[in-house]
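#struct-pred
JK: can someone run the complex with beta-D-glucopyranose? inputs below
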Amino acid sequence: MAGGVVATGGGTHHEGKITLFVIVTCIVAAMGGLLFGYDLGITGGVTSMDQFLLKFFPNVYIQMKDQSGVHHQSQYCKFDNPLLTLFTSSLYLAALVASFFASSITRIMGRKISMFIGGIFFLIGSLLDAFAVNVAMLIIGRLLLGFGVGFCNQSVPLYLSEMAPPKIRGALNIGFQLMITIGILIANLINYKLAKIKNGWRFSLGIGAVPAIILCLGAIFLDDTPNSMIERGKQEKARKMLQRIRGIDNVDEEFQELVNASEEAKKVDNAWKNIIEAKYRPQLVFCSLIPFFQQFTGINVIMFYAPVLFQTLGFGSNASLMSAVITGGVNVVATIISIFSVDRFGRRILFLEGGIQMLLCQIAVGAMIAKEFGVSGVGSFSNGEVNLLLFFICAYVASFAWSWGPLGWLVPSEICSLEIRSAGQAINVSVNMLFTFIIGQVFLMMLCHLKFGLFFFFGGFVVIMTIFIAFFLPETKNVPIEEMNSVWRSHWFWARFIPQDMVNSHAHLEDL
Ligand code: BGC
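RT: done, structure tokens with the ligand placed:
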């Protein structure tokens, strides 16, 4: 998830090579995305491991193994335990809280400090979880990981976009999302391998410490970005830094642009006040609704709970982890497809196709579960049915991963001009984290109550969001950020909010 301010579109093309610096930058950034994905994907498998459940959630274990029906007849309710869900979802609550502090620290103290703090949180969180002796320690570990996510999602994408030459800046936005999906896949693979080993869950949770160490070391040895140095008054250092990262001596033009952008940014002292003005209504609406809708596609039900869900549906413990590996792989491949299609076919086509495909899959999955398990939650699938179900779940993950997954981060970041960018991004990140937390926390309870209807519930939201996109989102493909106003101005609905004089005023919207 590219959670920070990533400027896309616009920007003049400057000279500059892809230097060793830029490559190292990408590796560090890769660690930030990877860690987030890893922590996102690891819990599903861990919470379906017997030894883990026995140690921390013995009641869930008893319910799960109980065939007599004394504790719970319904397959739908086997894992319904608020503490178990808190283990998964507490991370997002912590990330939400941390992102409020992280944005000021990133601005005042620089990107690298913020990345370092994030890395340390990740490191301590992973170790606490790996050595956990009780549920409290486990959840405190998750909260620390969440702080790590809050800091890294703020600083890493920003660090990346400021270090990279402008021409590869846009690609990096989805590149960060790709790293998240790879992190999820690695987590699934590790869980699959370790499920059979004694105390395998400790290793699963502890391995996150490795990329955390790389991130911390990276943050110690790397320099801060020129933009951040200028922002903090270190002009000469910034110029030298720019020469080093671009690998050329003449960086005058780009340097001047950075200085101008920083001056402009200082004038824009109150992005929060700006964004509530009527003329920014489209940005306010999209930065709030896109993350909300993204979470109500129901994707994290699969990302967090696939192994649990598959086990509920009668795939054995190993088979369910294997299935999670398959969905994880589909997620990565479909994100790569998105990278290649987003500027060719445009955002709208991907959103609309993705929405329709998700809906069809949700209806199919809901109907199959309804047929086999009904409202009583007692039943089982034949082998053929299991494969068909897996096919629909994969098709659903693929459609999310080339639409709402990356676009949920890309679109809000490319529609916000400088004077509202920080507020727009903060709203986007917080709304996303808040609803990720809510879905993570209530899913198993909803499954217990709504039963197969849960899939239709999310399907209903997919219908609403697809209609919303069809009517309200103009195409933003290849539109430089400074020309975005004319796009709103010619839209049937948003035109009423945009004064004519905004259309031609280029508001110095160079990349931050
Ligand atoms: C979403 C996450 C989700 C991930 C799956 C991201 O865009 O924000 O909530 O888990 O995609 O790949």
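RT: quick notes.
Confidence is low (pLDDT under 50) at residues 1-12, 505-512.
Residues 46 and 329 are 18 Å apart (CA to CA).
JK: thanks, will look after standup
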